[in-house]
Design a protein that fits this description.
Distance between the termini: 151 Å
CATH class of the largest domain: Mainly Beta
Helix content: 25-40%
Radius of gyration: 53 Å
Number of helices: 4
Strand content: 25-35%
Shape: rod-shaped
CATH superfamily of the largest domain: Intracellular proteinase inhibitor BsuPI
Mean pLDDT: 81
Low-confidence stretches: 54-78
Number of strands: 11
Largest sheet: 6 strands, mixed
Number of domains: 2
CATH architecture of the largest domain: Sandwich
CATH topology of the largest domain: Immunoglobulin-like
Length: about 210
């Protein structure tokens, strides 16, 4: 222990202390270099491992685009459509056929034409739509006499200006009375007249024959 604290030799003690300091510095440098080498190797290994690991790409999530909705202007336009007024439609009717065999019901082709300048709704669901059958001054039948026949057409349509709608109505070849009172007398052979009214608009009466 004394040799460590007080160097023994034929040279001055300062020489021995300088040697020891140089040796300690050299050892410290070696240790530092070793630590740097180990750190560098560890860092290179980590970077190599990271680069070799495949990255998982996230595919973009597909989104469902909303279905097109009705714009406010279109909704407002539909809200502005009103019922067809007087003069906006015309109605015509033709028997089909004009001469009806004894075992057939008379049928009539009805054509509704929109004569206005803007779209409008034709309501053929109420009592303003009816078929009336007459023979001279004798009122034979009306679709408004009995509830079962009131819905002669029972539909409504939105028609643009210039559009037409074709429908067919029928007469069950019986008599009727207001209030749906029972009538025993059956219509006989001869000439009859059919008058069709749609949404309050009356067509010209047309003749037809029952055989």
């Amino acid at each position: 222990m004394k040799g460590l604290r007080a160097p023994v030799g034929n040279q001055p003690s300062e020489v021995y202390w300088r040697r020891r300091i140089v040796l300690l510095v050299a050892l410290a440098v070696i240790v530092a270099l070793g630590w740097l080498i180990v750190s560098a190797l560890s860092s290179d290994g980590a970077e190599s491992a990271a680069s070799s690991t495949p990255t998982t790409s996230t595919s973009p999530t597909s989104s469902t685009s909303p279905s097109p909705s009705v714009s406010q202007s279109e909704s407002a336009a539909s809200d502005d459509v009103t019922a067809c007024v007087d003069g906006a439609i015309s109605v015509s009717v033709a028997p089909n056929p004009a001469s009806v065999p004894a075992d057939k019901q008379p049928r009539f082709d009805v054509t509704i034409e929109q004569d206005g300048d803007v779209p409008c709704v034709i309501d053929a669901t109420g009592k303003n739509t009816k078929l009336v059958i007459t023979s001279g001054d004798d009122r034979i039948w009306s679709s408004n006499d009995c509830p079962a026949e009131e819905a002669l057409i029972g539909k409504s349509w939105l028609l643009d200006a210039g559009d037409t709608k074709d429908v067919q109505v029928a007469w069950p070849r019986i008599r009727s009375a207001e209030g749906c009172a029972a009538v025993d007398q059956a219509p006989g052979a001869g000439t009859y007249w059919a008058t069709v009214t749609v949404a309050g608009v009356k067509a010209d009466a047309v003749p037809f024959v029952l055989e």
